[in-house]
Protein backbone atom coordinates (compact mmCIF):
# COMPACT_ATOMS: atom_id res chain seq x y z
CA UNK A 1 0.00 0.00 0.00
CA UNK A 2 2.57 2.54 -1.05
CA UNK A 3 -0.09 5.22 -1.43
CA UNK A 4 -1.01 5.02 2.26
CA UNK A 5 -0.20 8.09 4.26
CA UNK A 6 1.35 7.78 7.68
CA UNK A 7 -0.57 9.24 10.59
CA UNK A 8 2.62 9.98 12.49
CA UNK A 9 2.99 13.10 10.30
CA UNK A 10 -0.18 14.41 11.91
CA UNK A 11 1.39 15.38 15.20
CA UNK A 12 -1.31 18.00 15.85
CA UNK A 13 -4.28 15.79 15.08
CA UNK A 14 -6.61 14.89 17.90
CA UNK A 15 -9.38 12.50 17.00
CA UNK A 16 -12.40 11.90 19.19
CA UNK A 17 -14.47 8.84 18.48
CA UNK A 18 -18.10 8.89 19.52
CA UNK A 19 -18.71 5.15 19.83
CA UNK A 20 -15.90 2.69 20.40
CA UNK A 21 -17.66 -0.54 19.41
CA UNK A 22 -16.64 -2.97 16.66
CA UNK A 23 -15.85 -0.44 13.96
CA UNK A 24 -14.58 2.33 16.25
CA UNK A 25 -12.20 -0.18 17.79
CA UNK A 26 -11.00 -1.39 14.37
CA UNK A 27 -10.21 2.18 13.28
CA UNK A 28 -8.49 3.04 16.57
CA UNK A 29 -6.34 -0.06 16.20
CA UNK A 30 -5.36 0.99 12.66
CA UNK A 31 -4.57 4.57 13.73
CA UNK A 32 -2.37 3.49 16.64
CA UNK A 33 -0.55 0.94 14.45
CA UNK A 34 -0.01 3.73 11.93
CA UNK A 35 1.79 6.00 14.33
CA UNK A 36 -0.86 8.09 16.06
CA UNK A 37 -0.09 8.43 19.76
CA UNK A 38 -2.74 7.13 22.19
CA UNK A 39 -2.99 10.62 23.70
CA UNK A 40 -4.11 11.91 20.28
CA UNK A 41 -7.27 9.79 20.47
CA UNK A 42 -10.24 10.07 22.84
CA UNK A 43 -13.30 7.87 22.91
CA UNK A 44 -16.75 8.92 24.02
CA UNK A 45 -18.21 5.51 24.78
CA UNK A 46 -21.45 4.93 26.68
CA UNK A 47 -20.45 1.41 27.73
CA UNK A 48 -17.85 1.66 30.53
CA UNK A 49 -16.52 -1.87 29.93
CA UNK A 50 -16.00 -1.17 26.21
CA UNK A 51 -14.18 2.07 27.06
CA UNK A 52 -12.01 0.32 29.65
CA UNK A 53 -11.02 -2.39 27.17
CA UNK A 54 -9.99 0.26 24.63
CA UNK A 55 -7.86 1.90 27.29
CA UNK A 56 -6.26 -1.43 28.26
CA UNK A 57 -5.59 -2.49 24.67
CA UNK A 58 -4.57 0.80 23.06
CA UNK A 59 -4.04 3.31 25.89
CA UNK A 60 -6.73 5.60 24.49
CA UNK A 61 -8.65 7.70 26.94
CA UNK A 62 -12.34 6.98 27.44
CA UNK A 63 -14.27 10.10 28.35
CA UNK A 64 -17.67 8.74 29.34
CA UNK A 65 -21.01 9.51 27.72
CA UNK A 66 -21.43 12.54 25.50
CA UNK A 67 -23.94 14.17 27.83
CA UNK A 68 -21.43 14.14 30.68
CA UNK A 69 -18.48 15.78 28.97
CA UNK A 70 -17.35 19.23 28.04
CA UNK A 71 -15.68 19.15 24.63
CA UNK A 72 -12.54 21.15 24.13
CA UNK A 73 -12.77 21.79 20.39
CA UNK A 74 -9.44 23.57 20.30
CA UNK A 75 -7.94 20.09 20.79
CA UNK A 76 -10.57 17.99 19.00
CA UNK A 77 -10.05 18.78 15.35
CA UNK A 78 -11.69 15.58 14.11
CA UNK A 79 -14.75 13.82 15.50
CA UNK A 80 -15.54 10.33 14.16
CA UNK A 81 -19.19 9.43 14.51
CA UNK A 82 -19.10 5.66 15.11
CA UNK A 83 -22.46 4.94 16.72
CA UNK A 84 -25.24 2.85 15.19
CA UNK A 85 -27.31 4.66 12.54
CA UNK A 86 -30.36 4.39 14.82
CA UNK A 87 -28.49 6.29 17.58
CA UNK A 88 -27.00 8.86 15.23
CA UNK A 89 -29.69 11.53 15.36
CA UNK A 90 -29.73 11.79 19.18
CA UNK A 91 -25.93 11.77 19.42
CA UNK A 92 -25.61 14.34 16.61
CA UNK A 93 -28.10 16.68 18.24
CA UNK A 94 -26.23 16.30 21.54
CA UNK A 95 -22.97 17.13 19.82
CA UNK A 96 -24.58 20.09 18.05
CA UNK A 97 -25.18 21.88 21.36
CA UNK A 98 -21.45 21.56 22.08
CA UNK A 99 -20.39 22.57 18.56
CA UNK A 100 -22.06 25.94 19.10
CA UNK A 101 -19.22 26.79 21.49
CA UNK A 102 -16.47 25.82 19.04
CA UNK A 103 -14.60 28.59 17.30
CA UNK A 104 -15.00 28.56 13.48
CA UNK A 105 -14.71 26.37 11.46
CA UNK A 106 -15.20 23.75 14.22
CA UNK A 107 -14.00 20.18 13.91
CA UNK A 108 -14.15 17.96 10.85
CA UNK A 109 -16.92 15.41 11.45
CA UNK A 110 -16.30 12.03 9.84
CA UNK A 111 -19.34 9.76 9.89
CA UNK A 112 -18.97 6.04 9.34
CA UNK A 113 -22.67 5.29 9.84
CA UNK A 114 -24.39 3.23 7.14
CA UNK A 115 -27.23 5.04 5.38
CA UNK A 116 -27.00 8.38 7.21
CA UNK A 117 -26.86 11.13 4.58
CA UNK A 118 -24.75 14.26 4.70
CA UNK A 119 -27.73 16.59 4.44
CA UNK A 120 -29.35 14.95 7.49
CA UNK A 121 -26.20 14.83 9.60
CA UNK A 122 -25.40 18.45 8.69
CA UNK A 123 -28.94 19.44 9.70
CA UNK A 124 -28.81 17.57 13.03
CA UNK A 125 -25.32 18.87 13.80
CA UNK A 126 -25.95 22.34 12.35
CA UNK A 127 -22.50 21.96 10.86
CA UNK A 128 -21.30 21.54 7.26
CA UNK A 129 -17.70 20.42 7.75
CA UNK A 130 -18.75 16.78 7.36
CA UNK A 131 -17.45 13.79 5.38
CA UNK A 132 -19.02 10.35 4.98
CA UNK A 133 -16.83 7.28 5.22
CA UNK A 134 -17.61 3.57 4.92
CA UNK A 135 -14.75 1.48 6.32
CA UNK A 136 -14.70 -2.24 7.03
CA UNK A 137 -13.44 -4.39 9.90
CA UNK A 138 -10.14 -5.55 8.32
CA UNK A 139 -9.14 -2.01 9.41
CA UNK A 140 -8.27 -3.79 12.66
CA UNK A 141 -5.14 -5.13 10.96
CA UNK A 142 -4.58 -2.21 8.56
CA UNK A 143 -6.09 -4.19 5.66
CA UNK A 144 -9.38 -2.37 5.41
CA UNK A 145 -10.80 -0.34 2.56
CA UNK A 146 -12.85 2.80 3.04
CA UNK A 147 -15.20 4.51 0.61
CA UNK A 148 -15.40 8.29 1.08
CA UNK A 149 -17.83 10.96 -0.04
CA UNK A 150 -17.86 14.70 0.57
CA UNK A 151 -19.96 17.37 -1.07
CA UNK A 152 -18.67 20.50 -2.76
CA UNK A 153 -18.72 22.46 0.53
CA UNK A 154 -15.80 20.40 1.88
CA UNK A 155 -12.42 21.86 1.00
CA UNK A 156 -9.30 20.09 -0.24
CA UNK A 157 -7.48 20.08 3.08
CA UNK A 158 -10.45 18.52 4.89
CA UNK A 159 -10.68 15.87 2.16
CA UNK A 160 -6.98 15.17 2.64
CA UNK A 161 -7.40 14.95 6.43
CA UNK A 162 -10.32 12.50 6.09
CA UNK A 163 -8.29 10.45 3.62
CA UNK A 164 -5.23 10.34 5.88
CA UNK A 165 -7.29 9.11 8.83
CA UNK A 166 -8.98 6.40 6.76
CA UNK A 167 -5.66 5.45 5.13
CA UNK A 168 -4.46 4.39 8.57
CA UNK A 169 -6.98 1.57 8.28
CA UNK A 170 -6.01 0.55 4.74
CA UNK A 171 -6.90 1.71 1.25
CA UNK A 172 -9.28 4.52 0.32
CA UNK A 173 -11.58 5.19 -2.63
CA UNK A 174 -13.65 8.32 -3.23
CA UNK A 175 -17.07 8.12 -4.86
CA UNK A 176 -18.50 10.97 -6.91
CA UNK A 177 -22.14 10.69 -5.85
CA UNK A 178 -23.52 10.16 -2.36
CA UNK A 179 -25.96 7.45 -3.45
CA UNK A 180 -22.93 5.29 -4.34
CA UNK A 181 -22.11 5.10 -0.61
CA UNK A 182 -24.93 2.52 -0.39
CA UNK A 183 -23.10 0.45 -3.02
CA UNK A 184 -19.80 0.80 -1.14
CA UNK A 185 -21.55 -0.26 2.07
CA UNK A 186 -23.02 -3.30 0.31
CA UNK A 187 -19.79 -4.41 -1.36
CA UNK A 188 -16.98 -3.63 1.09
CA UNK A 189 -18.61 -2.38 4.34
CA UNK A 190 -20.68 -5.54 4.75
CA UNK A 191 -18.34 -7.55 2.50
CA UNK A 192 -16.18 -9.15 5.20
CA UNK A 193 -19.31 -10.92 6.48
CA UNK A 194 -19.87 -12.58 3.09
CA UNK A 195 -16.24 -13.69 3.02
CA UNK A 196 -16.48 -15.10 6.55
CA UNK A 197 -19.67 -16.94 5.56
CA UNK A 198 -17.80 -18.35 2.53
CA UNK A 199 -14.94 -19.47 4.81
CA UNK A 200 -17.39 -21.11 7.21
CA UNK A 201 -18.96 -23.03 4.32
CA UNK A 202 -15.59 -24.12 2.85
CA UNK A 203 -14.35 -25.31 6.23
CA UNK A 204 -17.53 -27.23 7.06
CA UNK A 205 -17.57 -28.82 3.58
CA UNK A 206 -14.00 -30.02 4.17
CA UNK A 207 -14.98 -31.44 7.55
CA UNK A 208 -17.96 -33.27 6.02
CA UNK A 209 -15.51 -34.87 3.58
CA UNK A 210 -13.48 -36.24 6.51
CA UNK A 211 -10.81 -33.59 7.18
CA UNK A 212 -10.24 -32.63 10.80
CA UNK A 213 -11.39 -29.10 11.70
CA UNK A 214 -7.88 -27.67 11.92
CA UNK A 215 -6.81 -29.02 8.53
CA UNK A 216 -10.06 -27.96 6.85
CA UNK A 217 -9.67 -24.47 8.32
CA UNK A 218 -6.07 -24.17 7.20
CA UNK A 219 -6.88 -25.30 3.65
CA UNK A 220 -9.86 -22.95 3.34
CA UNK A 221 -8.15 -19.86 4.80
CA UNK A 222 -4.89 -20.30 2.88
CA UNK A 223 -6.81 -20.87 -0.35
CA UNK A 224 -8.87 -17.72 0.08
CA UNK A 225 -5.81 -15.66 0.96
CA UNK A 226 -3.66 -17.07 -1.86
CA UNK A 227 -6.39 -16.75 -4.50
CA UNK A 228 -7.21 -13.20 -3.40
CA UNK A 229 -3.58 -12.11 -3.57
CA UNK A 230 -3.16 -13.79 -6.94
CA UNK A 231 -6.20 -11.94 -8.30
CA UNK A 232 -5.03 -8.68 -6.69
CA UNK A 233 -1.59 -8.94 -8.30
CA UNK A 234 -2.91 -9.99 -11.70
CA UNK A 235 -4.02 -7.74 -14.56
CA UNK A 236 -6.44 -10.42 -15.69
CA UNK A 237 -10.13 -10.64 -14.92
CA UNK A 238 -11.05 -13.02 -12.10
CA UNK A 239 -13.02 -15.03 -14.67
CA UNK A 240 -9.81 -15.81 -16.59
CA UNK A 241 -8.09 -16.95 -13.39
CA UNK A 242 -11.14 -19.11 -12.62
CA UNK A 243 -10.91 -20.77 -16.04
CA UNK A 244 -7.24 -21.64 -15.42
CA UNK A 245 -8.25 -23.73 -12.40
CA UNK A 246 -11.04 -25.44 -14.31
CA UNK A 247 -10.01 -28.50 -16.34
CA UNK A 248 -12.59 -29.79 -18.79
CA UNK A 249 -14.47 -32.67 -17.17
CA UNK A 250 -12.47 -32.24 -13.98
CA UNK A 251 -13.18 -31.59 -10.31
CA UNK A 252 -13.51 -27.79 -10.44
CA UNK A 253 -15.95 -28.03 -13.35
CA UNK A 254 -18.09 -30.39 -11.25
CA UNK A 255 -18.14 -27.89 -8.36
CA UNK A 256 -18.81 -24.85 -10.56
CA UNK A 257 -21.67 -26.69 -12.30
CA UNK A 258 -23.40 -27.14 -8.92
CA UNK A 259 -22.77 -23.47 -8.09
CA UNK A 260 -24.29 -22.52 -11.46
CA UNK A 261 -27.32 -24.78 -10.95
CA UNK A 262 -27.94 -23.04 -7.64
CA UNK A 263 -27.44 -19.60 -9.21
CA UNK A 264 -24.61 -18.80 -6.83
CA UNK A 265 -23.48 -15.73 -8.80
CA UNK A 266 -27.01 -14.32 -8.95
CA UNK A 267 -27.58 -15.08 -5.27
CA UNK A 268 -24.53 -13.05 -4.31
CA UNK A 269 -25.57 -10.20 -6.60
CA UNK A 270 -29.05 -10.23 -5.07
CA UNK A 271 -27.59 -10.29 -1.55
CA UNK A 272 -25.37 -7.29 -2.28
CA UNK A 273 -28.29 -5.48 -3.89
CA UNK A 274 -30.37 -6.17 -0.75
CA UNK A 275 -27.64 -4.63 1.41
CA UNK A 276 -27.54 -1.55 -0.82
CA UNK A 277 -31.35 -1.22 -0.75
CA UNK A 278 -31.28 -1.53 3.04
CA UNK A 279 -28.77 1.33 3.23
CA UNK A 280 -31.08 3.49 1.12
CA UNK A 281 -34.14 2.61 3.20
CA UNK A 282 -32.27 3.35 6.43
CA UNK A 283 -31.25 6.72 4.97
CA UNK A 284 -34.86 7.50 3.96
CA UNK A 285 -36.33 6.43 7.30
CA UNK A 286 -33.73 7.88 9.65
CA UNK A 287 -33.60 11.09 7.60
CA UNK A 288 -37.24 11.79 8.60
CA UNK A 289 -36.10 12.58 12.16
N1 LIG B 1 -19.30 -3.24 12.10
C1 LIG B 1 -18.93 -3.00 10.85
O1 LIG B 1 -18.38 -3.89 10.18
C2 LIG B 1 -19.14 -1.65 10.25
C3 LIG B 1 -19.90 -0.68 10.86
N2 LIG B 1 -20.06 0.55 10.28
C4 LIG B 1 -20.86 1.57 10.96
O2 LIG B 1 -20.19 1.88 12.16
C5 LIG B 1 -21.14 2.29 13.13
C6 LIG B 1 -20.90 1.52 14.42
O3 LIG B 1 -21.09 0.15 14.14
P1 LIG B 1 -20.48 -0.95 15.11
O4 LIG B 1 -19.17 -0.50 15.61
O5 LIG B 1 -20.61 -2.23 14.41
O6 LIG B 1 -21.54 -0.88 16.32
P2 LIG B 1 -21.28 -1.20 17.86
O7 LIG B 1 -22.63 -1.37 18.48
O8 LIG B 1 -20.28 -2.28 18.00
O9 LIG B 1 -20.63 0.18 18.40
C7 LIG B 1 -21.37 1.32 18.67
C8 LIG B 1 -20.88 1.87 20.00
O10 LIG B 1 -21.51 3.12 20.26
C9 LIG B 1 -21.70 3.21 21.66
N3 LIG B 1 -22.71 4.24 21.91
C10 LIG B 1 -24.04 4.16 21.70
N4 LIG B 1 -24.63 5.33 22.06
C11 LIG B 1 -23.63 6.15 22.50
C12 LIG B 1 -23.58 7.48 23.01
N5 LIG B 1 -24.70 8.20 23.15
N6 LIG B 1 -22.39 8.00 23.36
C13 LIG B 1 -21.26 7.25 23.23
N7 LIG B 1 -21.24 5.98 22.77
C14 LIG B 1 -22.41 5.45 22.40
C15 LIG B 1 -22.11 1.82 22.08
O11 LIG B 1 -21.89 1.60 23.46
C16 LIG B 1 -21.22 0.95 21.19
O12 LIG B 1 -20.03 0.57 21.85
C17 LIG B 1 -22.52 2.04 12.55
O13 LIG B 1 -23.10 3.26 12.18
C18 LIG B 1 -22.27 1.16 11.35
O14 LIG B 1 -23.17 1.42 10.29
C19 LIG B 1 -19.45 0.88 9.12
C20 LIG B 1 -18.67 -0.03 8.47
C21 LIG B 1 -18.51 -1.39 8.94
O1 LIG C 1 -24.38 -4.21 8.95
C1 LIG C 1 -24.29 -2.98 8.98
O2 LIG C 1 -25.31 -2.27 8.89
C2 LIG C 1 -22.93 -2.33 9.10
C3 LIG C 1 -22.64 -1.44 7.93
C4 LIG C 1 -21.59 -2.15 7.15
C5 LIG C 1 -21.20 -3.27 7.98
N1 LIG C 1 -21.92 -3.32 9.07
Automatic annotation (TrEMBL):
Its main location: cytoplasm. Pathway: Amino-acid biosynthesis; L-proline biosynthesis; L-proline from L-glutamate 5-semialdehyde: step 1/1. This is Pyrroline-5-carboxylate reductase. The gene is proC. Its EC number is 1.5.1.2. GO terms for biological process: L-proline biosynthetic process. It comes from Polynucleobacter wuianus. Catalyzes the reduction of 1-pyrroline-5-carboxylate (PCA) to L-proline. SUPFAM superfamilies: 6-phosphogluconate dehydrogenase C-terminal domain-like, NAD(P)-binding Rossmann-fold domains. NADP(+) binds at residues 18-23, 82-85. It is an enzyme of class 1 (oxidoreductase).
Amino acid sequence: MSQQKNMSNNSNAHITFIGGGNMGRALISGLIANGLEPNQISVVEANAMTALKLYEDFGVQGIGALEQIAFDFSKNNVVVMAVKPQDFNVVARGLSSKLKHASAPGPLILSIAAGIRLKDMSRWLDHTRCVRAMPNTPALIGKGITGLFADAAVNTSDRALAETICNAAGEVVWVAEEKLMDAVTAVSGSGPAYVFAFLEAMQSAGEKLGLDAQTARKLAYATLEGATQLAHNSDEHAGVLRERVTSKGGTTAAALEVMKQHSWHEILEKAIDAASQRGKIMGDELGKN
